[in-house]
Amino acid sequence: MTDALAPRTDARIEDRIAGKRDDLIALTQDLVRIPTLNPPGQYYRDICDYLERRLSARGFTCTLVRATGAPGDSDRYPRWNIVARREGPRPGDCVHFNSHHDVVEVGAGWTRNPFGGALEGDRIYGRGTCDMKGGLAASIIAAEAFLEEHPDFAGAVEISATADEESGGYGGVAHLAKEGWFTPERVQHVIIPEPLDKHRICLGHRGGWWAEIETKGEIAHGSMPFLGDCAIRHMGAVLDTFEERLFPAMAARVTEMPVVPEGARNSTMNINSIHGGQAEEHEGLPAHCVPDSCRIVIDRRFLIEETVEGVQEEVVGLLEDLKSRRPNFDYEIRELNRVIPSMTEKSAPVVTTVAEAIREVLGQDPTYVASPGSYDQKHIDRIGKLKNCIAYGPGVLELAHKPDEWIGVTDMLDSARVMARSLERLLLR
Ligand SMILES: [Zn+2]
């Protein structure tokens, strides 16, 4: 930065963050001890109330927003979100830190209490420490240090904690974006502290298209299958077609997106489930029937160079081709969900700012990555029309959703330093 508008920076804020180590640990532990499991989506109000108490005491104006009517929202499990905003004395940009407050199920294999928040050496253990209550805590500490150090800043700092990212974000960021909380007029820079590692900037994610395919048959006695029509054999033909034509075509497509791990730089498809004929759970021996229906769910992840329409047409084209060649073949296809790919330009202000802050704080160049799966950036991009958004936060991505999940205190402190330095670059003018 050599232009006349170069922001003032100094190392004092980093000392201030170092002095908040105990506060950061206690905050992370408090958040982990509120078991915001999704499903079912519980204790969302409790975690929002906790954050409201903390942030309103520090001058933030807090708004609790329930995503009434969103998938999963009910009076028993209301989908609560919080947006906290602290306005500076002078006009300027708004920097928004968005974290999801929900965590996935515990699963087997834990040797620690998943909601105990135990501190052992440099690690805090618990479900959601890494994904992503540690990132939420780091962003709060960074924002608080910045506000104490620079009460005269320009613009606004926002912190949100939102519901249901783990189940698509429809009761969280998607709802807030629909209600106008994420528009380029209100918010100029978004940082999502997902666990990507403190030296990595995540520019976006691939897209996804989920569909159910059903093949049709005709029921008959199992001893005389020639009198019926086996839907599972038709599905076998579908799977053969995918093996022969779709999978090789997808493997040949490589994205320019810096997706990690590298295998996800190709188009991919998972066959999520297959069901046909009699239900697996039944009493006694199976009845002898030719199945008249077989269903699969496909999970097709696609690249920014592809379109969701193209992805859909490719699958339908193969099914239509099969229909023209295979006697009695009939199918139905139902879209279950779609997510567009999102990728922020490397030259976007939030990217260049955080990159500079990483160089300054960690003394190394950032690594740019994109995520194989999606996260809430999709809603900020598609619904909010806000393109200046990244994921940046502490933690090791591979620990997310695993037993004995943990977050490193040093990593949280380092990424909080990067976040605070980024705030200085964006909001001191
Ligand atoms: Zn997450």
Description:
The protein has 429 residues and is an alpha/beta fold. It has 2 domains: 12-205 and 341-427, Aminopeptidase (3-Layer(aba) Sandwich); 208-339, Alpha-Beta Plaits, CATH 3.30.70.360. It has 10 helices and 16 strands. The chain has helices at residues 12-18, 21-32, 44-56, 129-149, 173-178, 231-251, 308-325, 349-362, 377-382, 409-427; strands at 61-66, 80-87, 90-100, 119-120, 123-125, 154-162, 189-192, 200-205, 207-216, 268-276, 293-302, 331-339, 342-343, 367-371, 389-391, 406-408. The strands form 4 sheets. It has a 6-stranded mixed sheet with strand order 1-2-6-3-7-15. A 4-stranded antiparallel sheet has the order 10-11-9-12, with helices on one face. A hairpin with a 2-residue loop joins strand 4 and strand 5. The chain is elongated, with a radius of gyration of 25 Å. The relative contact order is 0.20. Mean pLDDT is 95; it is low at 1-8. The site of zinc ion has 5 residues, from helix 4. Keywords: Amino-acid biosynthesis, Cobalt, Hydrolase, Metal-binding, Zinc. This is Probable succinyl-diaminopimelate desuccinylase. Residues 204-323 form the Peptidase M20 dimerisation domain. InterPro entries: ArgE/DapE, ArgE/DapE_CS, Bact_exopeptidase_dim_dom, Peptidase_M20, Peptidase_M20_dimer, Peptidase_M20A. Its EC number is 3.5.1.18.
